[in-house]
Design goal:
5-stranded mixed sheet; 452 residues; 5-stranded antiparallel sheet
């Protein structure tokens, strides 16, 4: 595998709906004790790394999912000269192109459409790949979409309209207090009996902000017995943005990490949980939500997970300056764990610069694994941090609990947006790397796999 490939196993899709839609570089590797975890898996991709160009302008991988055979799916946006399409890459267990995915000659499947798609979520449910996001005209996305694919990359005609659900939540679906204002987005999808749950946000009126929404689909159509015509709306009292920060627990509840406030001003983080019926779960903190006491400019919270004890962990960052990764942990009933970190706030300074936590997972031994970005020596690298249950850095992982990876020799900036842990305990982190091929710097899909 070369450092930058033109893939034979990727799909870029413009959706049309028929419905009414540490630093581990060559010089640093020798400093890492090979007896500990966090080593690049040389049996994956090119020495543990993958870099992949899908479109002609830029590609951003936002999420990843694991296949039953150990393969990996990455999904995000693929930019062509005049449109933004869904981009999906499917890898074999060794990180190579899957020759059975997409068109054999080009590795792509394109369904013409007049709009743009903003994709941030992917899941593997049964023998299908599901992506979710928004559709419209960049940067204003007025509809939400969910698409289902076969493992060969073809849209599943048995789902929605030709494999796609497309809907304008605020104008066409919700019947109470609705107004066509747009700015709609969904991301994470979860199995729910014979259907799917999808979480995101939508704006319902000119004066108010966005509200959190969950939807339930059966075979790609709204389950009208759920919420209001298939959509449940939760108003947390502000302009609520839910991007990738949602998770489904074993009881079917969906805890979520919501960013509240002006995108250009101070923001607060709200941790909420909705019940299986889409209403706020008042067994969590008494009201269904907890608001962080501090408001900060550019506050973000993108990662959330539930451990085996039912505790909810969230991760995020404050962009710019010397901001650090942060984590907070709540009990199953929504009480902040003040023994975790400093009075309930755990900060991780990866390398003295600006750091970002974008996703997290819990491994089979209960250790917390966080993925994101760290600024090192003037460039940004992928960062993976492993913590013990009490929040202490795991000394058996990388350099004192921290691994940073310069994904490619051409890479100028790397960021991990999503993380998964496979059944063997190996850590798969995917995201975007900005490469320079000697002409024009451009972002491409990228990823790494680390030893347990």
């Amino acid at each position: 595998m070369s450092a930058l490939r033109s893939s034979s196993s990727l799909v870029t899709v413009a959706l049309l709906c028929a419905c009414g839609l540490e630093r581990v570089s060559p010089e640093a590797t020798a400093l890492v004790d090979t007896r500990v975890g966090g080593q690049l898996d040389t049996g994956f991709g090119s020495e543990g790394r993958i870099l992949e160009a899908l479109g002609t302008t830029r590609d951003d991988a936002w999420d990843t999912a694991l296949l039953p055979d150990g393969g990996v799916v990455l999904a995000g946006n693929s930019f062509a000269s005049s449109s933004i399409d869904v981009g999906i890459m499917k890898l074999t267990p060794n990180g190579g192109d899957d020759p059975g995915f997409g068109t054999s000659l080009t590795g792509t499947v394109t369904v013409p459409s007049a709009g743009d798609e903003n994709t941030c979520g992917v899941s593997v449910i049964g023998d299908k790949i599901i992506t979710a996001g928004s559709r419209g005209t960049f940067p204003y996305f007025s509809s939400v979409y969910v698409a289902r694919f076969h493992f060969n990359g073809a849209l599943d005609a048995g789902f929605g309209g030709g494999g796609v659900f497309l809907g304008n939540v605020s104008a066409d679906i919700v019947t109470t207090g609705a107004h066509a204002i747009g700015q709609e987005f969904v991301c994470q999808t979860f199995a729910d009996g014979n259907g799917l749950k999808v979480a995101g946000h939508a704006r319902f009126d000119d004066a108010g902000g966005r509200d959190v929404i969950t939807m339930r689909l059966v075979d790609g159509f709204l389950d009208t017995t759920y919420g209001d015509q298939g959509v449940a709306r939760v108003d947390l009292g502000g302009d609520d943005r839910l991007w990738r920060g949602s998770y489904q627990d074993t009881s079917g509840r969906i805890p979520m990490c919501v960013v509240q406030g002006d995108p250009d001003g101070p923001r607060r983080i709200v941790v909420a949980r909705v019940s299986a019926d889409g209403t706020l779960d008042t067994s969590f903190a008494g009201t269904g939500s907890v608001t962080f006491p501090d408001a900060k400019p550019n506050y973000e919270c993108h990662g959330i997970v539930v451990d085996d004890a039912g505790r909810v962990l969230v991760a995020g960052f404050e962009p710019g300056g010397s901001g650090d990764m942060f984590l907070r942990r709540f009990s199953d009933d929504g009480v902040l764990d003040t023994a975790f970190g400093d009075n309930g706030l755990l900060l991780i300074d990866v390398a003295g610069g600006s750091d970002a936590a974008n996703d997290l997972a819990i491994d089979a031994r209960g250790r917390i694994v966080v993925a994101g970005q760290a600024s090192i020596a003037g460039q940004a690298d992928m960062a993976v941090v492993r913590l013990l249950d009490d929040g202490a850095l795991d000394p058996t992982f990388g350099n004192g609990g921290i691994v940073t990876v310069d994904v490619g020799q051409q890479a100028r900036s790397d960021i991990a947006n999503s993380i998964e842990i496979d059944p063997r305990g190996r850590i798969v982190a995917v995201g975007t790397s900005i490469i320079s091929d000697g002409v024009t710097p451009r972002p491409v899909f990228s990823g790494i796999r680390l030893s347990p």
